[in-house]
Structures are given as C-alpha cells and as structure tokens.
Task: structure prediction
Amino acid sequence: MTPAGAISTLADELAAANGHSTATEPVTLVIFGGGGDLAHRKLLPALYNLHLDGLLPPRIAIVGVGRTAMTDEAYRDFARDGVSQFSRRPLDADAWEHFASALFFATASIDDDRAFAPLGSRLDIVEHERGLPGNRIYYLATPPSLFAPTVKQLQHARFVPPQEPPGDGKRLPFARLIVEKPIGHDLESACAINDAIAQAFAERDIYRIDHYLGKETVQNILVLRFANSIFEPLLNQKYVDHVQITVAEQEGVGTRAGYYEQAGALRDMVQNHILQLLSMVALEPPRSLEADVIRDEKLEVLLSLRPLDAEAVDANVVRGQYSSGFELGKPVPGYLEERGVKADSRTETFVAVRALIDNWRWSGVPFFLRTGKRLPKRASEISIHLKAVPPILFNAVPDGQLDPNVLSIRIQPDEGFALGISSKIPGPRVRIYPVKMDFHYGSTFGGSSPEAYERLLLDVMAGDPTLFMRRDAVEAAWRWVTPILERWATTPGPLPTYAAGSWGPPEADRLIESTGRQWRPL
Ligand code: BG6
Result:
C-alpha cells in the first residue's frame, strides 16, 4: 500500500503487489499425497506460479511423498504435466528448469512404521544439499482418514519439534501442518481429528484449508465492507431484507464418486465454503486485521446461527439429487448413473437452506444458501437484497413495484460486484428502469488473479493464519450442520430430484417463494 498522501497510479500498485518478493524463511515443503490429484492439478501449478512471481523463498525444497515409488525425475515430469495442463500461465522453459530443480520425491507409506526413518534421512539429505535449516511444512493432501495416523507418525519419528521452545533462548526450526477439508464427516469425527493433530502441533502451527478463503473476491468482501463508507451502515436488519448465497457448479461428480458418495453437498460445500462466505459477509467490524481478531469475529457469526434440528430441518432445508438432463445442449447422465455411485444412493447433490443469525445486527434477516452440482452454469454469488422503498412517491403504484436495491458480489466467474439501482428513463414521462453500477476485476485490473492455492501456500510459508480455519470455527460449523445430517439419517423422507442443467428441485423454489421472495437469476 502507498503511504497516505503519496501519489500512486493503479499500475504502481499492481506492480508493487505482484512484483515484490515476500521475505519468507527457507523451507522444506513436504506434500503427503504428493503424487495425487490435488498436487497435480492445484498445488504444483500454484507453487510454479509463485516461483514465476518471485514469491517463493530463495531457498526451498518441495518433496512429494507417496506410496507408489517414483524417481525425482519422474516426479518432475509429473509436475510438469500438471503445470502444463492446469497452470494459469504457460510453462516457461527457463523458469521451469529452475523450479524443477527444487522438486524431489520420497516413497513412504503412512501405515508402515518403518517408512518414516528412511523418509527422515531423505529429507535431511535434501536439506543438507540445499542449505536448508530444517523449517518444515507438512501438507496432508490425503484423505481425512489418514490425517491422524500421519500426524502420529510425524510425532513418533520426531519430525515435529517440541511445542515448548528450549530454555536456552535458541530458536528451533519451525514445523507447520496444512490439512485439507473435509475435516471429519460430523462434529464428533472433526473433534477426534483436531484432538489427534493437537497432540503434535500447537494450534498456531495448524493451517486448515478452505480454498474459498484464498479467492481474491472472498478477501475483497472485507475491503468492500470496511474500506467504503457507503455499504456498512446499511448492512443490518434495519435495511436488509434478505441475503442469498449461491455456489452453483455446472459439472457433475466426475471421477470423485468415491469421496462424494460419503460426503454429499452439505458436507462438501455448506459446512465449509458457504459458511465461510456467510461469516465474511455477516461479521462485525473487527478491531484490527490481526488473524485472530478476524477469526474471532467469524466465529461469532457461526455461533449465532440459529440451530436447526428436528422439524426445523424439514421446514428450512431442501436437498436434491440430479437426474439425467442436458449440459450445454449435450445429454448428461443422472447422479445414479455416474461411475462409482451406488444404484440406490441417497447422496444429495443439491442443498438449499434458510438460515437465521440470532444477533443484534441480523435478527430476523433470512440468509438463503444454496449449492448444487449439474446446475445450469458455474456461478458463485452473494447478493444482499435491501428493503423496498415505502409504497409512496415512485413506489406508489401497486402493479409497478420498483426493484429493491441489490448489492451482488460475484465470487466467480466474471469476478466483481454490482449495485442495482432505479433510474429515470430519459423523456417527458417519469418512467423508472433498474440499472446497474458494475465493477469487473477483468476490465479494471486485467490479467488473471492468483489462484486461491497460491495465496494460501504463500501465507503458510509466511506464517500468516488469517485465511485458515481455526479449530473452534470448524467445530462450530459442524455443530450447526450435524443435526441436519442426523435428521436426514433418522427421518429419511423423500429425496427430490432435479434434471441436470436446471436450478435444483422445485422444493428449493418453494423454500424461498413461501416467504414472498425469489432466487435471484444468475
Ligand atoms: C471443493 C469440493 O472443495 O470445491 C468440490 O470438494 C467442488 O466438490 C469445489 O467442486 C469447488 O471449488 P471451486 O473453486 O471450483 O468453486
């Protein structure tokens, strides 16, 4: 940021934001599941892009760990393939050579007690050769069932320094842990994973990823709210009629049925991404930008969510499963026909919820949340619908109601935000037309925004936990979601279907229309 009073252009700001090298300490990044899909599609391309921007520490080693043996050369080929296919910027031969020299692979199986001693020796050798002091980040890009066993092995093999620093004032190398969602499948299992991790790592060294928090547009919610004076005074029950949060996906379950069959949309999207969006949009102004101050405020929102249990679930939550239909004019199979899905699966691929936040600011303002796979388009948006103006003056005609103002925050794609307002159509008569003040990242800032994983990996290297989920928040989110899962398990009821390529089952429309409102067209 430019100091107050200094003159800077947008170009200066962008250069400053993109060009400088973050002074992070030398580090070894150890990726368990390093030969897997997440590493291939997301992590290695993100690290490569950080390298292109000169943001990686000058001394670094990236060590993939997996049970299937691979040479370092083979791992570099695997990474190159991932970068070629999934990097937001093309592969540059020179930059690649330099990046690839930091990549290594080690074979180890988590359930083999004897595997960690050779892994330790391998890491020591790599660190010695690259002059690294032993700062380590362990990334668990593995199924959650392996989180606790891996951490146990790390501790057992003395990969994690003691949580209390030695009394002689010397600084030990750091050890940080990154875990991916899902953290458990309900409150109890999430607590068990958190307990197991806490045996080895202090909370300040645990980085629980929700990749939505790494998205530029999600970070911009706080800026939009607290760097402008126009919106914040309006964001409360006095002026807001309701809020909608939609995370729509066009794709089906794809190749992930093994995981998704156990998860479903509520666990996969609502417990984490949607509740994170909700807490960003609903939180009270934090007293500072310190990580725990912001995270405390987000937690407050989750704790203020009105619990939904028993009949309240039936009245406020709708689920659905896609049947066959069309995507971009091509026929696509229903969920039950997807590879790896049980023929009688009751896994939900769509959820809509009416949620209430019982605090002073939001009392009585419904938050309508929805997410689904195989919807007509990929579009994530938060829209804040302000109350209508009184039915006098321009809003006096009963059949010509004005559109209430809507502030819509487009998370993806076409990132940006818009404010819908009423304006007079030029001419002798007073005719009013809804117009938009619209901001698009693409046309203002150009280029492609960094991927969420770039920002998140950089933050772990820099030791900044702001954009990561704290234990209490993960558990608060599960506490709210678990009674819904329990109700579905104990009172199965019908599972509505919706045709692929439609906006979910009619029950989801009724959920909102019964309150006199409608889903905003996307
Ligand atoms: C993941 C879910 O967390 O988020 C996936 O497991 C989902 O099912 C994905 O497709 C959506 O992420 P994005 O960034 O593409 O919106």
Remarks:
- Residues 1-9 have pLDDT under 50 and may be disordered.
- Residues 238 and 386 are 9 Å apart (CA to CA).
